[in-house]
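A.,

Following up on our hallway conversation. Structure tokens first:
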């Protein structure tokens, strides 16, 4: 008997998409557009061409990692699409995006800003101002995790409410809910 490994593919895909998108937003917005930090800007402040090159290389590895997470998300999204039992819930998907982005902000903030101290949200800031930016980044992660968790629970509750028993006694998604 084949086990159903597709049960949570939509939620998994959404969380991974959220992690990837959170990484891309961090990399594109903070590293490239606003230029408030780079991957190793606390260790190699970008005040010389050599340090800019070092940071550019590590920023590239960071972007490669976020691209890889996004590619894995596409795989899980594809698997969800192939599974006829996938309940397509906008709340679950958007909730997963928020949860993933929040996890990215929180974990990356703890590791890179506080434990390893390889960079800070606003590298040029000092003292309390720098700490407040780092704490705001962590707080955004916590808020996004809470929003995502709430939406996923709402999506699950709606899916259960829409479930109908099949001829085998197993609950399946109602045909009318496929458009949601």
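Then the amino acids I'd put at each of the 180 positions:
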């Amino acid at each position: 008997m084949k086990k159903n490994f597709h049960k949570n593919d939509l939620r998994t895909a959404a969380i991974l998409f959220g992690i990837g998108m959170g990484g891309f937003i961090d990399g594109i917005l903070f590293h490239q557009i606003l230029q408030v930090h780079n991957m190793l800007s606390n260790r190699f402040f970008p005040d010389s061409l050599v340090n800019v090159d070092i940071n550019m290389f590590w920023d590239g590895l960071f972007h490669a990692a976020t691209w890889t997470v996004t590619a894995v998300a596409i795989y899980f999204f594809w698997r969800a699409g192939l599974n006829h039992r996938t309940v397509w819930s906008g709340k679950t998907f958007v909730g997963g995006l928020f949860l993933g982005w929040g996890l990215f902000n929180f974990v990356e903030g703890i590791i890179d800003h506080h434990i390893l101290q390889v960079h800070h949200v606003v590298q040029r800031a000092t003292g309390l101002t720098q700490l407040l930016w780092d704490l705001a980044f962590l707080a955004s992660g916590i808020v996004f995790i809470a929003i995502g968790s709430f939406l996923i629970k709402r999506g699950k509750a709606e899916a259960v409410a829409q479930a109908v028993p099949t001829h085998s006694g197993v609950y399946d998604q109602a045909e009318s809910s496929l458009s949601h």
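The chain has one domain: 9-179. Curious whether your intuition agrees with the design.

B.
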